């Protein structure tokens, strides 16, 4: 009987493979139906597109997806410890998301003056949901799916330095031994920390800490679990891209030339998933590949088509760009380093 670890691994791989295949089949089937209508119910064009979709999925599975997955699973330690990118998500974006967006762009240029197929809702939602599922699988792999997660707090790899570490750094390491054990030990975890602020046995990102300070009838409201927060963070991470693609589904935008910058910039924003969530490049990459281009396109869309996109997302992109420039660039100037400044 296979172990639970093997069952979880097989389940993850099957889910990712389904996310690779299903969006391509759905998008190409809708495109085949559109071609059949344009050609006056010509079934030859329909089955030709379906055959192309089957051949494409089979080819990329045998020659790209399976070799990449095999190499990643065999060399997981190398990619986890050395690199700051995720090759599986990059492979998925290039093999599934890019072709689906290309087919959607092609469908916008098909002559459909009589028949208007709402090509956007089901295919686009499925493409983005599959991408979110792949992102969830890659991020939830280190976590245990079983076990109690309620009433627990967790800590990340980047822990805050203890009081003793900060005092030793300020005093140049002098009188460090005179500090009491209560100061040198973390009051939350109850585990002594070293000079660098980390505990003697460095905990992983999946470590949990019991919280003994909030027990009672309402303790469920104080509970935190990284597995639940992971799902929330991922969906919030993709909401801006989902809204941009939704704007592309509006008929006036879909059949205009503005559909090209909408889908191209939406695809570029999906490349952020290639970078690991704890990478320092994620902040600048998010501004350059999403917030700044989305801000320009949304302002242009509002000027041309009216309020097709909520102003909330415009303000979000504007504030993210301004705060990025201010806190990461302007605050490093000498004029902001004076103590008399606010």
UniProtKB/TrEMBL annotation:
PANTHER family: TRANSMEMBRANE PROTEIN 236 (PTHR31453)
Superkingdom of this protein's organism: Eukaryota
Taxonomic source organism: Pygocentrus nattereri
Transmembrane intervals: 12-32, 44-68, 89-108, 253-275, 295-328
Tagged with keyword Membrane: yes
Claim: Membrane is one of the keywords in the record: yes
Protein name stated in the entry: Transmembrane protein 236
Keywords, comma-separated and alphabetical: Membrane, Transmembrane, Transmembrane helix
